[in-house]
Every structure is written in C-alpha cells, then in structure tokens.
Specification:
alpha/beta, Ribosomal Protein L25, Chain P, 6 helices, homodimer, six-stranded mixed sheet
C-alpha cells in the first residue's frame, strides 16, 4: 500500500478522516505509524496529499489530511480486451490500472471459454476491490471504468462505433506487418484471447477501422502483451 | 505449447526425432496429433520449422522434422534485475523471455530479502525448465543466459563495467525526470526491487553511467515495470 486511499465516508470533519477494516489492518501490519507520522494519501477520484496520524487503537485510526496535488494524468489508451481466464483477468486489470488505463471493455470472443463470464471476480464489488488495491500500489486515485460485453457480434455491430469514437483503433495482432507505435493521441487498443481472435473477429474489427499492429515475432501471453503494449503507447 | 522445442538428444536420425515425457504428455492432452499432422517445431538454440507426426504410442512419439527458418531476433536489451521474491521472479523471467531478452543478471540489493537467494527456483535445472516453457510459448529457440550476483557492491565495483560494456546503461527509477525511450541500440536496463534501490545503490549505478529514466508517475510492480519497459525499448 503505497497510498492511503480515502473515500468520502471516511471523513468525519473537513480535513479529518477515520479509517477501519482492511486499510487499518494493513497499516498495523506494515508501517505501524505512530501519532505525528505522515503517510501519502489520496481521495478516491480526487487529489493526492498527506495524512498525519492523530491517534489509533485496535479498531480505528484518525488522521488529519491535506490533499492538494493532482493525481497522475490518465493514460490516453482505452482497452478492448477479450475476457481472460479469471486468474489472468486479475493480473491484467492490475497491470492496466498501474499503467494508468481508465477505460476497460471486456469482450466475449470465440476463444473465450463461456465459463469465464461466471467468475465472481466480475461482480462490481469484487472488481472495485481489485482496482482499489491497484490504485493504492500505483499512487493513483481514479478508478478505471469497466464495461462487460458478453456477445461479440452485437457489441461490434451496434456499440463499438460509439465506444471508439474518434480515437485511433489498434488491434494487437501477432504477425501484423506493422509494429505497434505510439499514436500521439487517444487510442483504443484491442487485445485478443490466448490463441488470438479468430479470422472472422479480426475481419469484423479491421472492417471498423482497427489497424493490426504487432509487438514482435514472439507469441506473448495476454498479460505480457498488455503491459508491453501500454508501455509502448505510454511513451511521449 | 506453441512450439515443439527439440534438443539434440531427441534426434534418432537426421531429420527424425523421438520425444517422450512432458512434451509428449502435453501433446496427448491438448493437440492429440495423428500421423501426418504437422506441428511447429524448433531446435533449442537453432532454427524453426515443422514436425510431422510419424507415429505415437503411450510412451513415445516420432516425427520427421524440417527446420529451415531462423528464430526471432533477440531483443537488444539485457536486464540487471534486483532478485524478486520467487513467485514474481518466475513471472519476470517468463515475461523477459517472451519479449526476447537473452541476458539476465539477477542482483542482490538492500531491499532484497536474503531468503530469496535460497529458493530452489534458482537451481540451474529449475531455471532451465522455466525458460524452456517460456520459449515454447514464445515460439523462440534461444535460451536466455542467467547470471546470479549475490553481493551488490562487489558486483558493481568489479564486474559491472565488463558486463555493461558499450551498451546504453539505463536505470528504471520512479520519479526520474527523463522518460524511458528507445535508445536505438543495445542497452542494459537496471530494475530495482519492490520499494526501489536505496539511494546508495542508485548513486553507485549512476556513478557508473546508468541514466535514471521513468515509466511515468505511477508506482509499478517489478513485473509490470519490466514488461512495460521492454515493450518501449523493443520499439524500432
């Protein structure tokens, strides 16, 4: 936890918060702050700053907080990601959040096992918990928005145009002749499942303006492709 | 397994191999090839091509192989990586191998728990197994070389100059004013442990020509930093 991430209900007065539960337990097990000690803090969706411990006991801790610094700039890349299996999904959401992505569309595709859509990880509360942990690691305050699209064809035919808008449309595609490079502007990056999008899906996406781009000659796992691609697109 | 990775002892005659054990088990469980079926194959350290199944039973499978295509070009980035905890180490080695790294130096540093050096994963046979799996995923044939440096100061003072040679020396360092960018040539990229190199270590590295570079304002985990940095450096 590189950041004490606060939410509105934590405030008991202006500039004063009381926390309990997971965050307190974590502080007690790691930093063990004493009154007067200062931690990095941030307000969910808001500014970064510091929290100074006033007092704590086994149940709660109170801090005075000063939040006066803007959070990191969002990455101007949105993800259109074929739903990975649950364990990989968690790692992908974490990597994307760490790298500053704020918009993630999880999409069905032919090679996505339908059972993946049943994972409890996709419940809004579970997603939120995973993203909060990633924000605490990253020292960021803005939650990514996650949308679920359980059918490929209706999404691509009826919704994709509005989702993509004027952004550059990129499709990470092994074997594409053109290497992925920074676009200098907002982009929507599609990443297929293990094994890749099937030809019909590739065609559906390229017909809607997605440009196939390659990350090199090797076959990557989804999570490595995601981080490598975002690392490259995040270059200014 | 995207590649049937062969080694010299597999050859029972020119252009003919017999496999058993893990690779056969995996084929039986997944692809279930029949005589005449063709798989992608490669020779460890050598060329890529195809393997055509001649026959198989419960114990062995025999293939005729044609290996006539060069493997992917190595990435011209070597890693100097503070030894991560074992679980993260495996993911880092896998990501680095997938992205084409062929030279990895694992280094002690102040924030590396000394117990990490005791992990059985560092035994040569275990490292080799992990790297072979990654090569099979990547469709590559060239094993990365891994060197262990169990003491920071003697390594940096006595060996680093020869290891780095004329390559660009980069230090992934949160908060560095300069962003990481492709160097257009060979580089040696240093990545610290969770929590970062301590100031003395940063100073030791910068005194030897390592340029601190940043991957953005967020605090990344080692494995995400590694993949994002390699993705960026791998751009041509």
């Amino acid at each position: 936890m590189n950041l004490l991430l606060l939410d509105s209900p934590d405030f008991i007065a202006p500039g004063r918060v009381r926390i309990a539960g997971r965050r307190l337990t974590h502080l007690q097990q790691t930093l063990q702050p004493r009154p007067g000690d200062t931690l990095r803090a941030g307000l969910l969706g808001g500014a970064l700053g510091t929290a100074t411990l006033l007092h704590r006991d086994d149940q709660t801790a109170e801090f005075s907080v000063v939040l006066d610094t803007p959070p990191p700039e969002p990455l101007s890349v949105a993800l259109l990601l074929a739903l990975p299996r649950p364990k990989v999904l968690l790692r992908c959401l974490r990597a994307a959040t760490l790298l500053g992505v704020k918009e993630i569309h999880l999409l069905h595709s032919w090679r996505v096992d339908k059972s993946y859509w049943q994972t409890p990880l996709l419940a809004p509360q579970r997603l939120r918990e995973a993203l909060l942990l990633a924000l605490e690691q990253a020292r960021d305050t803005r939650l990514p928005r996650i949308s679920l699209h359980r059918r490929f064809k209706p999404f691509v035919e009826d919704e994709l145009e509005a989702v993509a808008g004027t952004r550059a449309r990129l499709l990470a595609h092994p074997g594409a002749p053109q290497p992925l490079a920074g676009t200098g502007g907002p982009s929507l990056l599609a990443i297929g499942p293990e094994g890749g999008f099937i030809p019909y899906e590739v065609q559906s996406l390229t017909a809607r303006g997605f440009r196939p781009v390659s990350l090199g000659a090797r076959v990557l796992t989804v999570e490595v492709a995601l981080a490598a691609a975002l690392g490259r697109l995040g270059q200014h």
